[in-house]
């Protein structure tokens, strides 16, 4: 659907509009980052903004965002007024745009004069992960939740501000339900104010150039994206049907098992909608909180969430970096969902707070099925979100919650190693040590790369974090993380990365590992907890990695001397130089031990633990 005839769009104005949209989006995010209060928003930057037109189409593409559909569903455009701010976090009434209750979303309509009256012409939206919205545990992510009612306060779309006046009663209800009421109130105020300012800025664009001209530019921006993805990206996928699956490993309630997510990808370049992503075969709804409500608004959110994976098919990495993901990708993709009652089609009130286990895995499943279709021209696997935290009382007796979203290594690519310690949310980062130690009764004793965590390959997977935190007062540790048994898979001869691991009192008398899903692991004052995040999978045969690159990895402390020998067949002398003759001999021995029947994907040893002993499945082997 278009707003206007795009043939009327002035190409110069299209560039002006595109640049203005990007600038406004960045301005909104900068304002939120500088005026919010909670560590998760202000310091970790776990939020994002988006701009949509009046047809609810996402115009900007630097990051994914929530949806406008639920707001317009409940509040028709002609009922909106300048200065209104809409709010929601209800997972089941968000049309798939909100995944769990701590993600709070504010939406502001943009107005311009049309035929002598003010009309809604666009929307500014922001949503992010907040410290606490109530529920069974601090942080509103109870790992053993069996219903959404345990996860916090659910708010369907409401009018939080009316013509510029905040709804104090609604704000009182929300802050009363939060363990961190002051930071929640400050964050909401920052987000509402930033979006209102963004709406004024965007309104100026309409007033300057006229509604019809700006809307024609919107259409041109989206039509251009559609054409670019059709011509440059989808053309790289051979017509055919391809199937692959991957798994979450636990749901916090039942024993660890393979929670299956499957994609059947059907490519038919002769059709107007050339790409079908079929989720049939995805496993049943989990008892615990790893479900994701994906089957709303025709999968609109998931289309834009998954589309960045397609960019890896661009001709060059530089071209890939130029491609945004906006609503222009939506007309190219059809999504087919299984019946209600699966991990992607849960039935209310199924819990969802750890839905990252599913939506992050779906990125990997799409990458895997595309790797099968293209002979490996996709990155290996990554797992770049997990929530860890410490809570207790500080030296003044006040409650605190230190919540952090630590990244991991990305997968090796057909042209380069993976990146270290990345996060899927743009601009997100770990909490600065100075801030952590200044605000909480904690000491960060080490923050670096987890050696040998990246999957071996011709192109090595990126490394995860290794972080050591000492608690200075009795406290509790929490974790919402996957990939502690299963690992990030390697592709085309590359090996899996190292899994996630939490260890209390490492090297001490009380040393023990903590389950990756934990709400309240007790820590006595003086105890150290060590967090090692996942490494990305490797790409290509590690025995083909040049010796000098392995030696460089050793000098950078990304690979150990033992890892160089075991994973890459490189023998290192005490001088730090490689024994080339011994290396050649060892590599020949390692190659000779192969059967020639190795699968296209390497899942690591954890898969056998949960599969009943199988090292791989039928989909991991390329068809003969």
What layout of secondary structure does this protein have?
Elements (H helix, E strand, L loop, with lengths): L10 H25 L3 H5 L3 E7 L15 H6 L10 E4 L14 E12 L2 E13 L28 E5 L2 E2 L1 H9 L4 H29 L1 H23 L6 E9 L10 E9 L7 E4 L21 H11 L6 H6 L10 E4 L19 H19 L12 E7 L5 E7 L27 H7 L2 E8 L15 E7 L3 E6 L9 E2 L9 E4 L7 E3 L2 E7 L4 E5 L14 H9 L5 H8 L11 H13 L8 E2 L3 H6 L13
Parallel strand pairs: 9-10
Antiparallel strand pairs: 1-4, 2-3, 2-5, 3-4, 5-6, 7-8, 8-9, 11-12, 11-15, 13-14, 14-20, 15-19, 16-21, 17-18, 17-20
Organism: Blastococcus carthaginiensis
Protein name: Hydantoinase B/oxoprolinase family protein
Characterize this entry briefly.
With 624 residues, the chain is α+β, with helices and mostly antiparallel strands. Helices cover 28% and strands 20% of the residues.
Give an account of the 3D structure.
- There is one protein chain.
- The chain is α+β, with helices and mostly antiparallel strands.
- The protein has helices at residues 11-35, 39-43, 69-74, 168-176, 181-209, 211-233, 300-310, 317-322, 356-374, 433-439, 547-555, 561-568, 580-592, 606-611, and strands spanning 47-53, 85-88, 103-114, 117-129, 158-162, 165-166, 240-248, 259-267, 275-278, 333-336, 387-393, 399-405, 442-449, 465-471, 475-480, 490-491, 501-504, 512-514, 517-523, 528-532, 601-602.
- The strands form 5 sheets. Strands 1-4-3-2-5-6 form a 6-stranded antiparallel beta sheet. Strands 13-14-20-17-18 form a 5-stranded antiparallel beta sheet.
- A hairpin with a 5-residue loop joins β11 and β12.
- α4 (168-176) packs across α5 and α7 packs across α9.
- The longest helix has 29 residues, at 181-209.
- The protein is globular, with a radius of gyration of 25 Å.
- The protein starts with 10 loop residues before the first helix and ends in a 13-residue tail after the last helix.
């Amino acid at each position: 659907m278009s707003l206007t005839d795009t043939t009327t769009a002035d190409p110069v104005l299209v560039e002006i509009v595109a640049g203005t949209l990007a600038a406004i989006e960045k301005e909104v995010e900068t304002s939120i980052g500088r005026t919010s209060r909670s560590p998760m928003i202000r310091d970790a930057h776990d939020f994002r903004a988006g701009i949509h037109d009046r047809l609810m189409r996402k115009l900007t593409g630097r990051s994914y965002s929530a949806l406008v559909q639920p707001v317009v569903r409940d509040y028709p455009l002609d009922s909106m007024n300048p200065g209104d701010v809409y709010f929601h976090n209800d997972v089941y009434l968000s049309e798939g745009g909100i995944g769990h209750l701590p993600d709070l979303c504010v939406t502001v309509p943009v107005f311009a004069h049309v035929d002598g009256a003010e009309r809604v012409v666009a929307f500014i939206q922001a949503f992010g992960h907040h410290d606490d919205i109530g529920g069974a545990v601090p942080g509103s992510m109870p790992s053993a939740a069996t219903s959404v009612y345990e996860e916090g306060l659910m708010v369907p779309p409401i009018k939080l501000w009316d013509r510029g006046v905040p709804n104090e009663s609604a704000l009182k209800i929300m802050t009363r339900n939060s363990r961190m009421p002051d930071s929640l109130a400050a964050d909401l105020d920052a987000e509402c104010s930033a979006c209102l300012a963004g709406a004024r800025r965007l309104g100026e664009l309409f007033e300057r150039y006229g509604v019809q001209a700006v809307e024609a530019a919107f259409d041109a921006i989206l039509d251009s994206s559609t054409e670019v993805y059709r011509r440059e990206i989808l053309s790289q996928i051979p017509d055919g049907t391809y199937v692959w699956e991957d798994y979450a490993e636990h749901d916090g309630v039942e024993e660890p098992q393979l929670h299956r997510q499957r994609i059947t990808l059907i490519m038919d370049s002769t059709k107007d909608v050339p790409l079908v992503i079929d989720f049939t075969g995805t496993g049943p709804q989990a008892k615990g909180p790893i479900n994701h409500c994906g089957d709303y608004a025709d999968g609109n959110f998931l289309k834009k969430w998954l589309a960045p994976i397609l960019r890896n098919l661009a001709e060059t990495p530089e071209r890939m970096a130029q491609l945004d993901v906006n609503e222009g990708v939506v007309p190219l993709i059809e999504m087919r969902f299984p019946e209600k009652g699966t991990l992607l089609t849960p039935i209310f009130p199924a819990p969802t707070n750890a839905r990252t286990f599913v939506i992050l895995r779906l990125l990997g499943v799409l990458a895997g099925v595309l790797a099968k279709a293209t002979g490996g021209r996709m990155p290996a696997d990554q797992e770049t979100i997990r929530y860890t935290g410490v809570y207790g009382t500080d030296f003044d007796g006040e409650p605190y919650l230190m919540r952090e979203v630590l990244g991991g290594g990305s997968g090796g690519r057909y042209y380069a190693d993976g990146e270290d310690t990345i996060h899927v949310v743009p601009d997100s980062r770990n909490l600065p040590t100075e801030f952590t130690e200044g605000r909480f009764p904690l000491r960060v004793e080490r923050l670096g790369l987890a050696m040998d965590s990246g999957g071996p390959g011709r192109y090595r997977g990126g490394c995860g974090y290794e972080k050591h935190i000492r608690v200075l007062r009795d406290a509790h540790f929490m974790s919402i993380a996957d990939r502690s048994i299963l690992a990030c898979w390697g592709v085309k001869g590359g090996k899996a990365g190292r899994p996630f691991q939490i260890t209390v009192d490492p090297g001490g008398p009380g040393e023990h590992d903590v389950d990756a899903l934990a709400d309240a692991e007790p820590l006595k004052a003086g105890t150290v907890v060590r967090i090692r995040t996942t490494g990305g999978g490797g790409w290509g045969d590690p025995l083909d990695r040049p010796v000098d690159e392995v030696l460089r990895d050793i000098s950078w402390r990304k690979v150990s001397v033992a890892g160089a020998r075991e994973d890459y067949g490189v023998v290192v002398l005490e001088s730090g130089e490689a024994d080339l003759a011994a290396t050649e001999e060892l590599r020949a021995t390692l190659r000779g031990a192969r059967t020639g029947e190795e699968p296209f994907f390497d899942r690591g040893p954890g898969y056998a633990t949960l599969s009943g002993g199988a090292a791989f499945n039928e989909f991991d082997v390329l068809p003969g």
